Amino acid sequence: MGLLRYIVQGFGWEIGREAAREGKAAVQREMAEKEEADRARAEAAARATREAESAARTRAKEEAARAKAVEVELKALKKKVDRARG
To answer: What is the pLDDT of residues 36-46, one digit of tens each?
Structure first.
């Protein structure tokens, strides 16, 4: 009876080890998937930030160009008024 007990106990240990290996592999897969999702989310956030900053710079340049055009037109109108008065 003692030998049979040791054999059954050995099978139990082997089954336990295999279950632990499978559990460890499953946890590692889940962690890898989570890290990949986090990396993709971070890259998307960085890309969105870069695009927003680029759009803001473009808008600022366009507004500056419009303001400059208005200033030039205002200066031309002031000269025209000064000539008409003088």
So the answer is: 999 999 999 99
